[in-house]
């Protein structure tokens, strides 16, 4: 292992925080979705680091499963966004308040 | 030594492109920056000796998922995102507070983390296709099957959402 585990986890935490920032502050549904992908990847990096540190393949299997989940999630999520755009002509999440009150 | 420096440079590029993703108002530029971020992460996986996952990262994320993203963004032909209105002070304040808590957590971890500088030097053979496949089809067979079921559910849901007017 070429760098200490702490540094890998720190990079992962920074990426995760950037993803949380994107989810909380952006209003474009696409950008929010991309931020979620960023958070999933941050967790993947941490899992790969732990897998290398403990000399075990289990962490990499988890990364494999997270990638599967991300693929399914993106397909369904983008379909929802496109359907939303067809009905409301916007992907701005501030203007999508059908269930408010 | 050279590989360590390469690791930090690539990590820096990954963080920079991630910041670009969340700060840019144009969704297409964000998507392209995210592709760069995924390539950097693939190189980090290579340096951490997860070879199969590095290839999968490029195939699945940079290839399939981001092409789907770019396709949907260009299909809807969106302009630039408008600036935030002034009415959401409470939400933005709470969000900023959460971000500050996260940054403080990173700071605490980095300053007084485990302090463990131990780096296992033995060669790691678990990053190839053989070891990963063996684990997937023996110890993790049930999660593997459930993942395939999840993909099927995603497929059916997408077809349903695309088919009729909801």
Write the layout of secondary structure elements.
The complex is a heterodimer of chains A (101) and B (166).
Chain A (H helix, E strand, L loop, with lengths): L4 H21 L3 H25 L4 H31 L13
Helix pairs in contact in A: 1-2, 2-3
Chain B lengths: L1 H22 L3 H21 L3 H26 L12 H23 L17 H9 L3 H23 L3
Helix pairs in contact in B: 1-2, 2-3
* Helical content band of chain B: over 70%
**Largest sheet data of chain B:** none
Biggest interface, CB < 8 A: A-B, 72 and 88 residues
> What's the CATH topology name of chain A?
Helix Hairpins
- Give the termini distance of chain A in whole angstroms: 54 Å
Named CATH topology of the domain at 1-79 in chain B? Four Helix Bundle (Hemerythrin (Met), subunit A)
Number of domains of chain A: 1
**Which class of chain A in CATH terms?**
Mainly Alpha
Q: Are there runs of chain B of 5+ residues with pLDDT below 50, and where?
A: none
- Helical content class of chain A: over 70%
Which class of secondary structure composition applies to the elements of chain A? mainly alpha
H-E order of chain A? HHH
How is the biggest beta sheet of chain A arranged? none
The first-level CATH class of the domain at 1-79 in chain B is given as: Mainly Alpha
